[in-house]
Design goal:
The complex is a heterodimer. By secondary structure, chain A is mostly helical. Chain A has 10 helices and no strands. Chain B is an all-alpha fold. In chain B, 84% of the residues lie in helices and 0% in strands. The chains are: A mainly alpha, B mainly alpha. The A-B interface holds A 1, 3-4, 7, 67-68, 70-80, 82-83, 155, 158-160, 162-163, 166-167, 173, 176-177, 180, 185, 188-189, 191-193, 195-196, 199-200, 203 and B 56, 58-65, 67-68, 70-72, 77, 143, 146-147, 149-151, 153-154, 156-158, 163-164, 166-168, 170-171, 174, 176, 179-180, 182-183, 186-187, 190-191. Chain B: It is a multi-pass membrane protein.
């Protein structure tokens, strides 16, 4: 317990937070990496997942991809890409996207598929085109699961972004590895606590958003 | 490739270390999740807090947890035990929810029938509810097993030996073969363990095969829906 107090002591000093290598800057970097990686993952995986859910084609491949991604060790992927791209942000981004995209994909197709088939048929019978069915029926009704996929992806990214510092990028992992190398447990623990706090905050933000969206009429709690 | 051939003993050693860290965690998570899930289902007021609480644990990133644990339980960061406990917590975070849902999916009809023909509470749990929840529990354990095996490697940055050491060494000394070998071995290990779990499931639940063939979806769908 004294260790935790020491870490908290360090966290409450001004110099821990200030400056270009301080916790504020590192936290913002960490969040920046997370948003960027989540954005890229969503840009790749959302359209794919929605297409799979809408057409019911390629589901087997999607399941296989998500399963395989779960078995892939993050650190291995990260260090492997880093050996090719060198030190910097490319390797973490590649690794983060490969790890997070399957979660987004799975959420997207599961979301679209969760929509009652009768509802989809009814929409079609009213003369909606495939695109209209997707954007006006399947996405709004499948939103809970689509968001769950994004939420899981965001959590995976925040956790893994800590490792970005291992291959020379920034983020909160910087302080963590600094503490590790200098045997300064207080710094290591303090940085860890900030990462955990960040993860819980992002998770809670998603949770609240999901809860608020449930109240919007036309967006279903069907999931 | 030559690097791999020259270092086969070390790869074997690290594979064993990897298993020694991940498998106990899977077992602990499974064994602890059952009473927790049972309790959560029994005392309805506790159900949501327990499920959300364990779910929240999953939001805690792995590396920071490896570092936080020593401050809470007095292990050391480089202690393998520390890694096993952290992994058990992650496994538990995933497993409690699926166990609670699996046990909850056993229909009330089945439970009351079992009581009616004279099963005691405990007997009913082990001979009726647990086997019926088996398939869903197995699905949960498979997820926990695969993700534990891939998560272990992270602890290598803290200096705990596992297949993850092949990543840290390979990165430090610029040996691509080392990293590739580590990734391949981790994935192979995950696949083998997954396969063994499926086989164990078939052996423990032989009725599954026949029921799937002869009595298709309707009954199973109703079980899931309930």
């Amino acid at each position: 317990m004294t260790n935790i107090l020491e870490a908290l002591n360090w966290l409450f000093t001004a110099e821990a937070w200030a400056g270009p290598g301080g916790l504020w800057v590192r936290s913002l970097e960490h969040l920046g990496y997370t948003l960027l990686a989540l954005g890229i993952s969503a840009a790749i995986a959302l359209p794919l997942g929605l297409a799979i859910g809408h057409t019911h084609k390629g589901r087997g491949i999607a399941i296989l991809a998500t399963g395989a991604a779960r078995a892939l060790p993050t650190l291995g992927l990260l260090t492997l890409v880093a050996l090719f791209t060198g030190i910097g942000l490319t390797a973490p981004m590649v690794a983060l996207v490969i790890l997070a995209a399957p979660s987004v994909l799975a959420g997207a197709y599961a979301g679209v598929e969760s929509v009652n088939q009768a509802t989809v048929d009814a929409a079609r019978a009213q003369g909606m085109s495939g695109w209209q069915v997707l954007t006006r029926v399947e996405i709004p009704l499948g939103l809970p699961l689509i968001l769950s996929g994004l939420r899981l992806a965001a959590l995976q990214i925040i956790a893994t972004a800590t490792l970005a510092a291992y291959v020379g990028a920034g983020g909160l992992g910087r302080q963590l590895f600094l503490g590790l190398q200098t045997y300064d447990y207080a710094v290591m623990l303090g940085a860890s606590l900030v990462v955990i706090l960040l993860a819980i905050l992002v998770d809670a933000t998603f949770g609240i958003t999901q809860r608020l969206l449930r109240r919007v009429p036309g967006l279903a709690g069907a999931g | 490739m030559t690097w791999v051939l020259e270092n086969l003993p070390r790869i074997g050693e690290l594979t064993l270390a990897h298993l020694a860290l991940s498998l106990p965690a899977v077992v602990i998570a499974f064994v602890l999740s059952i009473p927790l899930a049972w309790g959560a289902n029994r005392v309805r007021v506790l159900r949501e807090p327990v499920l959300t609480g364990t779910g929240l644990l999953y939001a805690v990133p792995s590396l920071p947890l490896f570092i936080l644990l020593p401050a809470l339980i007095g292990t050391s960061v480089r202690d393998p035990l520390n890694v096993v406990i952290a992994l058990s917590i992650f496994g538990l975070a995933l497993m409690v929810r699926s166990a609670a849902e699996a046990l909850d999916a056993v229909t009330a009809d089945v439970r009351t029938s079992a009581t009616a023909i004279g099963f005691s509470g405990v007997g009913r749990f082990f001979t009726v509810e647990l086997p019926l929840a088996g398939p869903a529990l197995l699905a949960g354990v498979r997820v926990v097993c695969v993700s534990s095996i891939s998560l272990v490697s992270v602890s290598a940055v803290l200096g705990v030996s596992s297949l993850g050491s092949l990543f840290t060494d390979g990165f430090a000394r610029n040996i691509i073969g080392s990293i590739v070998a580590g990734i391949v071995m981790t994935v192979v290990l995950a696949l083998i363990c997954d396969l063994l779990l499926v086989l164990a499931g078939r052996m423990l639940m032989p009725w599954q095969q026949t029921s799937r063939r002869r009595r298709p979806l309707p009954t199973r769908a109703r079980e899931v829906a309930a």
